[in-house]
Amino acid sequence: MPAETPVQRPPFSIEDTTAPVIATESANNTVECDGTGNLVDLNDWLASNGGASATDGCSSVTWANDFTALSDECGTTGSATVTFTATDACGNSSTTTATFSIEDTTAPTAPTAPADVAYQCSADVPAPGDLTATDNCAGDITATGVDTVDDADPCNILITRTWTFTDACGNSASVSQNITVSDTTAPVIDTEASNIDIECDGSGNSGEIQAWLDSHGGASASDNCSAITWTNNYGGTASDCSTPIEVTFTATDACGNSTATTATYSIQDTVAPVITGGADMTVECDGAGNLADLNDWLASNGGASATDDCSSVTWTNDFTALSDECGTTGSATVTFTATDACGNSSTTTATFSIEDTTAPVITTESANNTVECDGTGNLADLNDWLASNGGASATDGCSSVTWANDFTALSDECGTTGSATVTFTATDACGNSSTTTATFSIEDTTAPVITTESANNTVDHDGASSLTDLNDWLASNGGASATDGCSSVTWANDFTALSDECGTTGSATVTFTATDACGNSSTTTATFSIEDTTAPVITTESANNTVECDGTGNLADLNDWLASNGGASATDGCSSVTWANDFTALSDECGTTGSATVTFTATDACGNSSTTTATFSIEDTTAPVITTESANNTVECDGTGNLADLNDWLASNGGASATDGCSSVTC
Questions:
Q1: Residue 331's pLDDT band (cuts 50, 70, 90)
Q2: Which pick of 107, 112, 298, 373 has the fewest CB atoms within 10 Å?
Q3: How far apart are CA 418 and CA 405, in angstroms?
């Protein structure tokens, strides 16, 4: 057996061309700035490949990254975007990228704020001092101090002093101090006020007193924070016969703190009070003596006032009673005396008068009165209205009232109507008057009374005389009559034309209006009618017509007879006439003869009709025509009567023939 030849097999190779698989991507990492670069955090993140992991199906994986340095940002912050590369033993690699960031979100640590403090004056408040803060991320810290002033009340000012500390990344913290400025210290009286004695000069010694007041009674004062304002409680009170008058002088600073000092002034009084004002008073009469006005005027010393530089003033008067004038009016002249405490006195005189210039008050205005016309002037109504002053009433606060009016006559209007506008005058005892005006009117609003209503009228058409009937009916107002209590009556109607009905008939419904002189009206309505109840007149009766049979029904003769209404004629007094007939068919008689009795009806436009009757007849009076005469026939005797020959000759009518125009022929 021959030896086998060895089989050559290709070499077997295993290769790795697949990159590792990133099982977990690297993750960004942001850390808070620690001021030293956060090296521990950074190195841990890089060492952990940013938290990434990778697997490879053929070998283990080694990691590398491209980190060089962090960017340089505010303080010691910064960031770096790093690519992490996972490589297997055969050099296949995959990458994942993430960013490491250092940020500063922490504000600086502010120092403790200075304690709140209070001052008396704004000038005492010092400028802001310097404070220092620390920060976790290194870098410079900017410190600013700002005062917020609430001086809505300048005597209680609140200053909020705020220090703000800002790091290189813009994070900030602040602390505040409250500073209160309040002036509660009163001015100090350096020199007390001094008393003064003045001899009264008759004019109140105002110059000397004012100079004393202006000098604050010689007092002086000072204040720790502001200027001083002086006031005093001097009220112009006169010294009562040398009695000292005390005045308090008050020194007040800008914040209302005050200190007082007191002194007196005394004036000798030998001058009478000075009277100013005082006036006559005239009041309107109230009907009861105007006691309130009088007493008020007396109590006010007739409106006079008096001053005395040294004392108060008392008043008296010499009033006894008012004079007696019209109504409850009157007057009194009164002397008023003003006396000071030292017995000095002055007088003034004025007059109190009660007058009546007020017209009576119309409490109820006169009212218009309109009455229905009675045809005789309505005198009772008019006189009652005038006597009641048109229903008006009036009162007067000072006296009784009398009435008058200016009525003369009524105007002359339609019928016996009319009117008058009357002014009623109420006058009091002092001649004051008021008026009220109203109108008395006699009107006619009552329509005439239709005593007989208009009546319908129907006439039969008779030509021109129907118009006479119509005109007579209209002229008589359809037979209506009317009366009116205030004037005569005129009639009118609304007739225009008759309706257009059958023939020359028609009708009109007419409203008759009875109007009085004042235009009041009543109506009554009726209808005038022209009717046609008369049938047409048959002037020529229809005539019978008999024609000779023509064998075809004599249609031409028949139709001519029907069309001529059987020769009849008719007339109508109201309209034209139309004809109709009741022909249906001829009777069936011998041959083509026959007859029909026909009623012809003449109808006018209103449907009235008359009839006439005649008969159309077809008769046959013409004998048949022998067209072939019968012929003799001679036969040889057959010994039996020659019956056959005989019968044949008879049956052939001896050879004769005949025709007829109306029917067949029998022999």
A1: very high
A2: 112
A3: 18
